[in-house]
Amino acid sequence: MVNTSILILFFLTIILVSLFCIYYFLKRSFIKKSAVLEVKKSELENSFNELNAATLSQSEEKEKFEIEKKKTQEKNKKIWQMSETVYIEKKKVDEQLQLLQTEKEKLEEEKKKVDEKVKKLWSQSMAIHAEKEKINEIKVEIELQHREVIDSVNYAKRIQEAILPSLNEISVCFPHSFVLFKPKNIVSGDFYWFSQINEKIIIASIDCTGHGVPGAFMSVIGSTLLNQIVNEKGITDPAEILDLLDKGVNHSLHQTQTGSQSRDGMDAAICCFEFTSRVGREKRVMSEAEGDLKLHFAGANRPLYYIKNNILEETKADKFSIGGLDYNNQKKFTTHTFLLKKNDSLYISTDGFADQFGQNNKKLKTKKFKEILLSIQDKSMQEQKNFLDTFIENWRENLEQTDDIQMIGIRV
Questions:
Q1: Alpha-carbon torsion (88, 90, 93, 97), positive or negative
Q2: Residues 226-244: what's their mean pLDDT?
Q3: Sequence-distant (≥ 6) Cβ neighbours of residue 285 within 8 angstroms
Q4: What is the largest CA-CA distance in the chain?
């Protein structure tokens, strides 16, 4: 029994020791494990803390990233908008560049054409230069010829002036008178003519076809014929003078011959003053006629203006010219006779004064001419001449003189 109890006790002791050992080993293992766990826990806590920190950092980074993302998105939007604008502008620029390229190509084509023209112009310029030298040579020759022509015309002027009646001789018979004589081109196709036959004084205003040298030739013919008709044949009736003058011009210019192309002629106004008293016949001076003076007038397309008591009367001319190709027409000129009184004024003229262009490029015209004659009756005849001369120069301003101008004014 005792042995059994000891065995039991032994076994119990062994068991207890075993349990104790187990406990001890378990406890140590637990302590080790606890230490390991603590270490691991600590490591885990550190890892957790690090993870938390990393998480916080990531959150912050995420927030920063989101902020940056938003900024980037906004920038991208702006960039996109800018890109659209840039694209549109680029498209415009491309279009402009295309246009510029097209213009450039056109300009290059134009440049080629211009270059070709320049080459042509250069060759033409050289040709022109050569022609210019020839022209200069011709110009010098023409100037020389022109000088010779002008010298000849000036010489012809002296001849024409020698043929014209002396103004002093006219003023002796007509103390209150004037002759306005303004050639267009040095010599004139207009001329005046004067003669005394016994108790008669004849004065004429003649307008020949043309002016300048051709007109001057006609004036020589007209003056020569008048000398023959009046001074040699003694004919003093104005109408008869015009009849013979017409025939003389036809004959001189061979206008009666078949196939003649000469159309030249003249218009004329002829006045014959006849003294009826002994004093008048002897002195033949109008200022001493004392009312015994007759005027006989005939005109070929040129009238007589007669002013009496400040009233202007016009004696119209026959509608025929002297000479020309209408020689087959029956021309019959008419003589008109007036009895003149003291202070009566009369005027005969060519058409040059009334036909002069001037202000607003218009002709002066006959109506205005007659108004001017009436307006200057308070002036002496010399003052009238000066006034008319100044007036027509002011009227034409810078325009060329249209035609020869010739006018005769006489006051009884």
A1: negative
A2: 95
A3: 172, 173, 175
A4: 233
Both tokens assigned to 297: 């007038």
SS3 286: helix
Here the tokens at position 396 are 């034409």
Task: Tell me phi and psi for residue 285, to 5 degrees.
Answer: -125, 125
Residue whose tokens read 């637990």: 30
Q: What is the DSSP string of 336-370?
A: EEEEE-TT-EEEEE-STTTT-B-GGG-B--HHHHH
Please tell me whether residue 214 adopts helix, strand or coil conformation: helix
Burial of 259 (0-12, 13-18, 19+ CB in 10 A): exposed
**Is there a contact between 297 and 271 (Cβ–Cβ < 8 Å)?**
yes
Q: Distance (Å, rounded) from C-alpha 329 to C-alpha 300? A: 14
Exposed / middle / buried, residue 293 (Cβ in 10 Å: 0-12, 13-18, 19+):
buried
Q: What is the pLDDT of residues 40-59, one digit of tens each?
A: 777 767 776 776 776 677 67
Kindly state the helix (H) or strand (E) to which residue 82 belongs, with its residue range: helix 2-163
**Calpha distance 338→335 (Å, rounded):** 10
Task: Decide: helix, strand or coil at residue 180.
Answer: strand
CB 292 within 8 A of CB 280: yes
- CATH no. of 165-411: 3.60.40.10
Its pTM stands at: 0.65
